[in-house]
Predict the 3D structure of the following.
Amino acid sequence: MRKYPRTLPEFEADFATEAACREYLFRLRWPEGFRCPHCGHSTAWRIGEVLWQCPKCHNRTSLTAGTVFENTRKPLALWFRAMWLVTSQKNGVSALGLQKVLGLGSYETAWTWLHKLRRAMVRPGRDRLSGVIEVDETYWGGPEEGVRGRETFKKVLIVVAAQEDGKAVGRIRLRHVADASSASLLPFIEDSIEPGSLVKTDGWKGYNGLGGKGYRRQIIVVSQRRESASDLLPGVHRVVSLLKRWLMGTHQGAVSSEHLDYYLDEFTFRFNRRTSRHRGMLFYRLAQQALALETVLYKDMVTHCRGPKPQGYKM
């Protein structure tokens, strides 16, 4: 079996049956052969289609246990089609679009699947950005009256880090933050950027503590330059433009603040892999990471939301 399909015909040929999907997941989960998660033994007896029993400790292990696919009632082949649609389409797919294409019984199911896959788009322990990094914030939401500067009551704030790669943009990081204070901005930078990097920002006081965190800072004061902000921090503003176009185009702007971070994760996953020669590589990476992430129930997704809310924000 090939590492990943490069085209739709290859995808359809590789994953035409449940058995083929199970074999692919087995190879991704145990590339060097089965290992018992309890005792590390390297052999097992197969029980049914998805269970293996260790002859040493007698522990039974399911192929999908502890993964995004755990306890699914739908065929793996349908999950694979969902992953292919998400990764092969340049701008992804909305929950309504996924529901229609796959013939899922409800919008809720399609929405849940997409959010499970979005959670798998962040690789644990991923490398931080390094070198020269532009950092700035942007707002998501409708126009507001009676606000000044960086304050907001209804909009949500997104902080963006874009790594310079010559004149192009390299990798990026995005996060929905509660406000533009140092308490919100500096943790994002510490999580996203290697110490010692040169961080380009405007003169906002929320970035004043960068030196104490081990970063070099270049302050670009927009108000004292003839160029626009998009000229002085071109990488960040290019990313912001593409992000808002994607949110409005693919998702029609229907993205709540509570779940915004997961949409930002999807955009980052796509952007950082935009130069992949084959879209199938994105499918392969998503399948790999889906096996490393435990599933999340719908009720937990809507009850425990990751994104912070600005003070005074009301749904």
